[in-house]
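Hello,

Our lab assistant flagged a job as stuck in the queue for most of the afternoon. It eventually completed. Since we weren't sure the result was trustworthy after the delay, we are filing this so someone can double-check. Below is the sequence as submitted and the structure that was eventually returned. Let us know if re-running is recommended.
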Amino acid sequence: MSGRTLIRGGLVITASDELHADVLIEDGRVAALAAAGTPAAEAWTAERTIDATGKYVIPGGVDAHTHMELPFGGTFASDTFETGTRAAAWGGTTTIVDFAVQSVGHSLREGLDAWHAKAEGNCAIDYGFHMIVSDVNQDTLKEMDLLVQEGVTSFKQFMAYPGVFYSDDGQILRAMQRSAENGGLIMMHAENGIAIDVLVEQALARGETDPRYHGEVRKALLEAEATHRAIKLAQVAGAPLYVVHVSAMEAVAELARARDEGLNVFGETCPQYLFLSTDNLAEPDFEGSKYVCSTPLRPKEHQAKLWQGLRTNDLQVVSTDHCPFCFVGQKELGRGDFSKIPNGLPGVENRMDLLHQAVVDGHISRRRWIEIACATPARMFGMYPKKGTIAPGADADIVIYDPHAEQVMSAETHHMNVDYSAYEGKRTTGRVETVLSRGELVITEREYTGHAGHGVYTPRSTCQYLN
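-- returned structure --
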């Protein structure tokens, strides 16, 4: 019985099944499932029993796109690995994949080591890393092979941010060719940064300095154009492609077309694009700066196409791109010049609840909720079935979720280290009650019982969706 936990009476929901079942956990893993009330289940004993009657029992969320402690625009994202992973756990996420950054002139290894140092011993939940490639050269390309071998199997490139993270088409092509050989997955920030910089300069020259102009210069057509270009470069290289934070309906159309052609092209969107819009960017008194992120929020009519893309599987994953900056002292750096507002939104704590609200609202099914938030990101980034499901042998990353509890999202009650909520005052139905990470209680009936250092680094295999 030592180290055994039994979850009884809940509705177990995975990407493929819904079943009233009891779950037996042993040594940090799921040992067995059995239909509730059957002799097999009734015979189980454990030193800890959790009553999940009337609740959902779901896999812990996998947020495959976070930026803890990211340096950006002369400041740093306000969540550390400690505060950010604790907040993630409060929101029912039990694994994050963060982005280590290669600085221009430095090696991938230096960047990865720096991020290991930030995270190690500080995380409440398990974590992995993608690698941002800012400087493609022969040494970098060789390093990509080594990183794939040790479980860093995805590489992010930027068609935006000239002078910072930007890669030109030749650099992108070289990295894609390398990933085609080594099994890695290129993740692309698809916006035409060169053209956007021209529009930024022209807007500021006209005196258009308010946050809303951030959305106006980062045009949907320039997201679509870059998405199309990234797809064609990947096609030339014979490489798979994962487009991050898709926000524009025109970009969704490019992804759908590529997938209809049978290409290994995948798309991610984020809750902010599903629930927020340019209306938020236009809020007066510089409040709109709270909603500055890239790709930017779009007019509301884009939301329906994003939901449609999630239903038709032209978009496969919902991640947060969690990159928080406080309003006071950080977002305010851009008063009088929207281009100086640090780009990013807080959201790692809100994702699972917002997507459950989408179930309540009829946008997606319960199983699709688990698919886009848990199972698919785990498969996409080589962690399934260890993560992303509830099945014998899987890590016991499990959330007891109350589908009837109501809450109001607010900066006063969230656990992210940021002074505002992007969803302030939003009423949602459904709330995390208890969270286990590898069988250990991190949230116990709405109380934090985890600790920094429980979370461990998780090496990943390659993408599990490639033809």
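-- support follow-up --
The delay was a queue issue, not a problem with the job. The result is valid. The CA atoms of residues 355 and 361 lie 10 Å apart. The mean pLDDT is 97.
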